């Protein structure tokens, strides 16, 4: 299911002439200058998405950010982040066991592996999407880019906001946000949320939809300012998702939203985070300490692997129990906000990440003389990682127009694996079963990541910049591999180079950016399946080259009208045998968005938007059977907002476009994207 009559050139031309509503303004307010794109001497190319922009653009998950920022994409199987692949400029994480290519930080708290990223978004002040290596300004390494999210802080007065929505598939949700002072230097913020819906996938064998979704959670912050220059913050977050089957259907199915599975499927996920933040302000800069503990649990994830009605005892299924516990400590020193001519950010970072799992795969096997019998394989594993890093980036203003920057990161990473795989069958004698395979190994290494950059103000409205940096994804182990040799993977080293320009015309309420990049990745980490086996592991391709362009436009031509567009094109290919010239899997050839919003004088508003994703392969062989062609999704919203009240009618995927957001070549199944959805949302504040 794809759009075959749209080429990258057509999309890019359209995007450069169009725009999309990321810079949405509050209804019934006069036009104001839009938040600029981020291109400064001490931060690399990035985009700022404000909280209200995310709400009004119906962005309620990390996956919804895909395509809103050039060359940023999320491949998702609708499992709350488990198994998601985030890519930036041609670099992506591997499934399940590999370092993230795109790191994530929420309120200065770093997330763990990509599989444990939260799929939904809290109420946010803003999201910064930073492109290129970010290991010189963050404790948690972002080898290809970074998502930096911040939630609202308490205001000087007490405020409360309640939002409720209802829509297709009996979807409904409620959200409460409150905050304000408590007295004696204390203040607080609180978010509570619940969201649920009926499933999209109809199971004809069980006679019902099986991929229902339900999630509840909350975030609480307690602030204390014992003095004007000192602040303490205690942050507690918890959520639980109780979902049905993974959204999967067979690729050869005439209807991607229909399966014939005899297994209902289930996925239960919990997340807890506790962090303590201390900030000290002084004339010499800002000192921060962030101590964080978090626990992520998947218990269980049950999936039918053949998605058909099998005979009892001959089912093909997967049951996974997995958890990840992480403790981090970061000390950070930042220069004063208006420091000149020098500005800097430096720190030290410690992380201990422990993951464990219990994975069972059951499937029939053929035994002589051609008789099928039940069979299962069980994998128990423990992965432990220790990370110690020092980082820093400094900028120097040579004159009012020219700024230079330099940075470096030095870190030591130690990984250990303890893994056992056993086989069982109710009818095969133990002596005929494979012997248990055991993998116990450890490896440690030092890594260094330098960077250089420059920014030049060509004139009052135009700034040019260039940057060169190394991004490193450390070596590690795959738990779904049976031998020490296949379990090990090496570090990936990417040399990233970019040049670009930013144009800002405040009087015209317009900003525009254009950038080009050339990246070379050695020992590129990617997924591979072992033939005639249930093994699934991370390997290293010798070399990958990524070349690309990206552009963003924001414009408010008249009062009430907001336009925005973005487009990114990347040619990410293997530059070594055996797949020399093939496209890197899970990386769309291009991404883009365009749209508009208009606020009428009396509080009514209307917005419409398109998101476009280019052709994507899902294996390194570029098998056409596992390729999703280019597609677009059209969303729209009509609403009324006045004072602290708003109500809106919204539609998603208005054209009911059919596409796969994820394809699993091993089981020849895919995750169909969201179908056409409609709903109503109301918000009141007091």
What secondary-structure arrangement, pairings included, does this model have?
Layout lengths: L7 H10 L20 E3 L2 E8 H6 L15 E4 L9 E4 L2 E2 L9 E5 L2 E2 L15 E6 L13 E6 L8 E9 L3 E13 L2 E12 L4 E2 L4 E2 L3 E15 L2 E14 L5 E2 L7 E2 L6 E17 L2 E20 L12 E18 L7 E26 L3 E27 L4 E23 L12 E21 L4 E12 L2 E2 L6 H4 E2 L2 E14 L4 E20 L6 E20 L5 E14 L15 E10 L4 E10 L2 E2 L9 E2 L2 E12 L2 E8 L7 E5 L4 E4 L4 E9 L1
Parallel strand pairs: 6-9, 13-18
Antiparallel strand pairs: 1-2, 2-8, 3-4, 4-5, 6-7, 8-9, 10-11, 10-41, 11-12, 12-15, 13-14, 15-16, 16-19, 17-40, 19-20, 20-21, 21-22, 22-23, 23-24, 24-25, 25-26, 26-29, 27-28, 29-30, 30-31, 31-32, 32-33, 33-34, 34-37, 35-36, 37-38, 38-41, 39-40
Offer a concise description of the structure.
Helices cover 3% and strands 60% of the residues. With 686 residues, it is mainly beta.
How many whole angstroms does the radius of gyration measure?
Answer: 25 Å
Q: Class, according to the CATH hierarchy? A: Mainly Beta
Biggest beta-sheet profile: 22 strands, antiparallel, barrel
Residues in helices, as a percent range: under 10%
CATH superfamily: TonB-dependent receptor, beta-barrel domain
Query: What CATH architecture would you give?
Result: Beta Barrel
Give the domain tally: 1
